[in-house]
Amino acid sequence: MKFLPLLWAGLWRRPLRSVLTGLCIVTAFLLLGLLEGVNAGFAKAIAEAHRDLLVTNTRVRGGAPMPIAAMASIQSIPGVREVTLRAYFMGSFGEPVLNNTVAALATEPALFSNFDLG
Questions:
Q1: Is the pTM here over 0.70, yes or no?
Q2: Cα–Cα distance list, 55 to 6, 66, 80, 85, 112 (Å)
Q3: SS3 2
Q4: What is the phi/psi pair of residue 105, to 5°?
Q5: Residue 116, pLDDT above cutoff 60
Q6: Other C-beta atoms within 10 Å of 65: how many?
Q7: Which DSSP letter does residue 57 get?
Q8: CA–CA dist 25, 19 (Å, integer)
Q9: Per-residue confidence band for 58, with pLDDT thresholds at 50, 70 and 90
């Protein structure tokens, strides 16, 4: 007994259902392929992340900077290679609107040159 003619006749008994089922299968494989691409992108981003660099801040965002006395206690933690200060400044010229805002990050550039960030 040949099953191919029986299968063909069963598929085209209700053609709309067969076409919609085929579209669902094609859509499922398309979404699976897209999801694998996103997954590969996340894996690459995680692999290229610099997990050896840790930036610490105070609890209050935009608040007072971390005390300079904390540098010695952070430096004494095993595995810490360098400790440096970083300050963030914002200002505006003219009227204080978003287009006139200037931001600056002040740090010790010589200490950051020790890290391979590229």
A1: no
A2: 67, 12, 12, 10, 12
A3: coil
A4: -120, 115
A5: no
A6: 12
A7: -
A8: 10
A9: confident
